[in-house]
Amino acid sequence: MRIEDKILLREIQKQNKDVFEALFNDYYPSLLRYAEGFVFEGGLCEDIVQNIFVHIWEQAEYLTITTSFKSYLYASVRNRCLNHIRNLKIQDKHHLLYLEASLNDSDVDWEEAEINKKVESAIEALPPRIGEIFRLKYMEEKSVREIAQQLEISENTIKTHLLRAKGKLRKSLRESLNLNFFL
């Protein structure tokens, strides 16, 4: 750990607001852009980065940093973004199972039929390539590898498109249905 980082840590542990504010102002914009590389929702990225700074401030006396502050901050952002994505995958899997069950149910009532229309409409509103990938993954139940081979693009591109599709669908359905259980 560099001497500058040791001094910075010591000052933050002393609750020096000026030093903390300088740290925040120096790193916040770049950490926000870094988070947006993982999570495609601006507001969520802001929350993640701000929560890291809140954690640093509140836990300053217990904070142990063995690397540079910069490395610590970027690793914290990466880990929190990956945790968020992991949690979304778990939630999305359950929501998609519900969605699939409701789309395949022949005895749906009027309200569910309306929801299904809005879901289909939201899927149709996706950009063509993203919609195609979403349908292949969740309606035709193809693996990421199978989709990548079929469309001749990388698996990472498929994963990125799926994350974007989920984000766009979440936003669209939140606005049109006000359904928190789906989101």
TrEMBL record:
Annotated keywords: Sigma factor, Transcription, Transcription regulation
Membrane-spanning parts: none
Positions of the RNA polymerase sigma-70 region domain: 23-88
Keyword Transcription regulation: yes
Domain of life: Bacteria
InterPro entries per UniProt: RNA_pol_sigma-70-like (IPR039425), RNA_pol_sigma-70_dom (IPR014284), RNA_pol_sigma70_bacteroid (IPR014327), RNA_pol_sigma70_r2 (IPR007627), RNA_pol_sigma70_r4_t2 (IPR013249), RNA_pol_sigma_r2 (IPR013325), RNA_pol_sigma_r3/r4-like (IPR013324), WH-like_DNA-bd_sf (IPR036388)
GO biological process: DNA-templated transcription initiation
Residues in RNA polymerase sigma factor 70 region 4 type domain copies: 118-169
Gene Ontology MF term list: DNA binding; sigma factor activity
Family affiliation: Belongs to the sigma-70 factor family. ECF subfamily.
Record-given protein name: RNA polymerase sigma-70 factor
Organism of this sequence: Echinicola strongylocentroti
